[in-house]
Amino acid sequence: MRLKAILCKGPESIVVGEIGEPKAAAHEVIVEPLYGSICGSDIAICGFHGKKYPGIDPSPDNPVVLGHEWSGVYDGRLVSAGCTLGCHGQAIYPPCPSCTIGREDQCYNRKRIGFEVQGAFSERMAFPISLLFNVPEGLDAKAASQTEPLSVAVNAVKYLGKVDGGKTVLVWGAGPIGFYVMQYAKVMGSNRIFVVDIAEYRLRMAERLGASRTFNPRKEDPVSLIKEETEGAGVDVAFECTGYAPAFNRVIEASRRMGTVVIVSIYGESLIIEHPFREMTDKGLTIKNARLGPADSVRLALKSLAEGSVKPVITHEFDMDEAERAFTVAANPDRYESVKVVIKLG
Hints:
The structure is a single chain. The chain is globular. It folds into two domains: 2-146 and 312-344, Medium-chain alcohol dehydrogenases, catalytic domain (Quinone Oxidoreductase, Chain A, domain 1); 152-289, Rossmann fold (3-Layer(aba) Sandwich), CATH 3.40.50. By secondary structure, the protein is of the alpha/beta class. It has twelve helices and 18 strands. Helix 4 crosses helix 5 (176-187), helix 4 (147-160) packs across helix 10 and helix 7 (222-229) packs parallel to helix 8 (245-254). It has helices at 40-45, 97-100, 141-144, 147-160, 176-187, 200-208, 222-229, 245-254, 277-283, 295-307, 323-331, 333-336; strands spanning 2-8, 14-20, 28-37, 64-65, 69-74, 77-80, 84-85, 111-112, 125-128, 133-134, 169-172, 193-196, 213-215, 235-240, 255-263, 286-289, 314-319, 340-344. Helix content is 29%, strand content 25%.
C-alpha cells in the first residue's frame, strides 16, 4: 500500500508524493501523525535561499521524508516525542556513555527522524515505543506538535543554562526556539529577560509573551542598553538563537563575568569569533551548545504545554496538500510574519 508523504527532492522542491508502508522493527510501533510543524532545519534541508544542511542532500532519486516536530495517534492515544533516536531508540545495547546518563541528545550513534530516517510528514511512520510520550489530558494535537522544539528550549534553559529566579537572561533571536527559550526561562523563575531581534512583529510577540525589554539592533545598540539595565555587569545567561554568526560576538559582549552562553542554533557559515581570545577567557565564560532535547526535556515540554505555562507560537496552519505553500510561508517569515507554521497531516 502506498502512503502520502511530504518529500523534499532537492533545492526548494517540496512535493506531496507517495512512499511505501513503513515496517516496524521489534522495538518500534506504527504511529499516525496528526500535526507537524516546519523547523528551520527543514528549510535548510530543502535549500531555501541557498541554505544547506550538513550531511543531508535530498535529490529526485533520494528524496527526504521531512518532519521531526509532530504529534500523532498510537493505540487510540494522542502521543508526541522528540526527534532524537539514541541507543535506546535504535535498540543498541549496551548504550553509549551519553545515553547511559540520559543524554541521548549527545548519543555517539545518534539518528533523527526527518533527517537520517523517515520523518513524520506522512500518513504513518515507525517509531520506537520507548520514546513515545502520552499527551496530557486537555492538550490538543496541534499544540502537542510543539513538543520537540520546546524540548530543545527546556534542555537549553534548565539543564545547560541552569536558569533560576536570581538570574538575568538574554535571548538573541526571537524565532520559534527563541520564544520557547524565553517562556521556559520564565517557568524557571527568571523575571528579567531581554529579547533581541530585527523584526518588529517578533518583538511585539515577545512583549506579549512576557519579555522584560526588547531591542532592535537596527535601531539601537542592545549591548549598551543591556549593560545599563544590569548596572554595567551584563546578563547571567545568554542564549544565541539566530544561527547568524555575528550575533554570537554580540552575545559575548552582553554577558557578565563567569556568565553562561548557550548556543541554540546551527550556523550556516563558519563561526568567526571576532573578540580576542583573551577577552573571552578573561571573563571566565562557560559556552555550551543545545541542539536537541533528551527524553526528560520532552516530558517537561509536554507538562508545560498542558499547564499553559508555555504558549505555542503557531501563526499559520495548512493542510497536507498545501505543503509547498506552507514551506513558502515558513521560509519567508518577514513577508508573511510567520513564526511557527504547522501542517495538518491526518
